């Protein structure tokens, strides 16, 4: 009797009730299920609440064929608790007798327009794969992830069309035992919002917040300039 391959999503965002990381990962899991995979999703933050919940996470990692990390960028790196989780997984795998071929992919998003901001985080994930005995199958980088704001991608409209296409291509490739294709990487990296619009919106929001606190006239102050 054949056993269906298993895909495990680790969501590295602490945002509630939903996050962009969860939206991206959940969409990919749905596509993997359509390709014959059993899927499971685990929140990194919930997994550290008790020793039992952490043991559950480690068991889920041991039992998966494909591990997907989905997380937001924190200061050019991974969220601290996700880093801790990967350290625990790596230490566990040095003790466990697991000779199965397991693959790892990562999906990272940030609030800036440029997907290139995520490059260092993806390198960290690739290094983790090497150190922990996973086969690295590639990473996807998304800029402007806050525009999704935790909505299901099917409800995000035209802004998500490239994201959806990228994840569809990714799911098909992973189901066929292949790495994330270059076309999927390029599609995911296409800007959701152009830099000029991002800057204009950010400036407007900054001025509104300053006006709310009565300090709009002091935005150009330099109190530490000698």
What does this structure look like?
By secondary structure, the protein is of the alpha/beta class. The chain has 2 domains: about 5-195, Rossmann fold (3-Layer(aba) Sandwich); about 195-225. It has 8 helices and 5 strands; from the N terminus they run βαβααβαβαβααα. A 5-stranded parallel beta sheet has the order 2-1-3-4-5, sandwiched between helices. About 35% of the residues are buried.
Notable traits:
single chain; 226 residues; alpha/beta; Rossmann fold; 2 domains; five-stranded parallel beta sheet; 8 helices; globular
CATH architecture classification of the largest domain: 3-Layer(aba) Sandwich
Radius of gyration: 19 Å
Q: What share of residues are in beta strands?
A: 15-25%
Oligomer: single chain
* Beta strands, count: 5
Shape: globular
State the name of the first-level CATH class of the largest domain.
Answer: Alpha Beta
User: Which regions are unreliable across 5 or more consecutive residues at pLDDT < 50?
Assistant: none
Characterize the main sheet: 5 strands, parallel
Order of helices and strands: EHEHHEHEHEHHH
- First-to-last CA distance: 76 Å
Count of DSSP H/I helices: 8
CATH-derived topology of the largest domain: Rossmann fold
CATH superfamily of the largest domain: Flavodoxin domain
Number of domains: 2
Q: What is the averaged pLDDT score? A: 88
Topology (elements, then pairings):
Blueprint: E1 6-11, H1 20-34, E2 38-43, H2 44-47, H3 51-63, E3 66-72, H4 80-95, E4 103-109, H5 119-132, E5 135-142, H6 161-175, H7 182-189, H8 195-212
Parallel strand pairs: 1-2, 1-3, 3-4, 4-5
Helix pairs in contact: 1-6, 6-7
């Amino acid at each position: 009797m054949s056993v269906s391959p298993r895909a495990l999503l680790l969501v590295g965002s602490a945002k509630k009730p939903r996050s962009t990381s969860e939206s991206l990962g959940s969409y990919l899991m749905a596509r993997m299920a359509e390709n014959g995979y059993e899927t499971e999703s685990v929140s990194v933050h919930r997994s550290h609440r008790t020793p039992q919940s952490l043991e559950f996470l480690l068991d889920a990692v041991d039992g998966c064929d494909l591990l997907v990390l989905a997380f937001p960028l924190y200061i050019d790196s991974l969220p601290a608790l996700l880093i801790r989780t990967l350290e625990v997984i790596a230490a566990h795998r040095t003790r466990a007798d697991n000779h199965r071929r397991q693959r790892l992919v990562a999906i990272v998003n940030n609030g800036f327009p440029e997907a290139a901001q995520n490059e260092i985080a993806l390198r960290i994930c690739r290094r983790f794969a090497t150190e922990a005995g996973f086969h690295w199958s590639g990473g996807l980088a998304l800029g402007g992830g806050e525009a999704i704001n935790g909505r299901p991608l099917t409800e995000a409209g035209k802004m998500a069309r490239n994201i959806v296409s990228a994840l569809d291509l990714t799911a098909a490739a992973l189901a066929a035992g292949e790495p994330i294709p270059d076309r999927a990487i390029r599609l995911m990296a296409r800007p959701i919002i152009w830099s000029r619009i991002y800057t204009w919106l950010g400036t407007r929001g900054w001025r509104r917040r300053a006006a709310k606190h009565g300090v709009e006239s002091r935005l150009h102050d330099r109190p530490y300039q000698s």
